[in-house]
Amino acid sequence: MKHVHLLKIIMIKMKQNLNFKFKISILLSSHNHLIVKVYQNLFSRMLNTTLFLSEMVLSLGIISSFISTLLLFFPLILT
78: part of which helix (H) or strand (E)? Predict the structure, then answer.
């Protein structure tokens, strides 16, 4: 039903403005493509965020192991 209502609105707008017809045809043809693009964009952002967080955790682990190694050998360095 929503599609029929949308098509009625489009027909009315097309009668009012011929330039609008071109815009609406682009909108209708690329509507599913735009939804896919939005989901792809969100997924890639989530993936980038996940990769960034895992890199941060990995670097924090490396830094903490380095610090613990330094603390372990610190008494040996002093003597």
Answer: helix 31-78
Please state, in angstroms and rounded to a whole number, the distance separating the CA atoms of residues 76 and 16.
86
Torsion of CA 9, 12, 13, 16, to 10 degrees: -170
Amino acid, single-letter form, for residue 29: S
Cα separation, 19 vs 27, in Å, equals: 13
Half-sphere exposure of 13 (CA within 13 A, CB side): 13
d(CA 47, CA 41): 10
Instruction: Report the candidate in 6, 5, 22 with the shortest Cα–Cα distance to residue 14.
Output: 22
pLDDT (tens digit, 9 = 90+) per residue, 2-41?
566 666 666 666 565 555 545 555 555 555 666 666 666 7
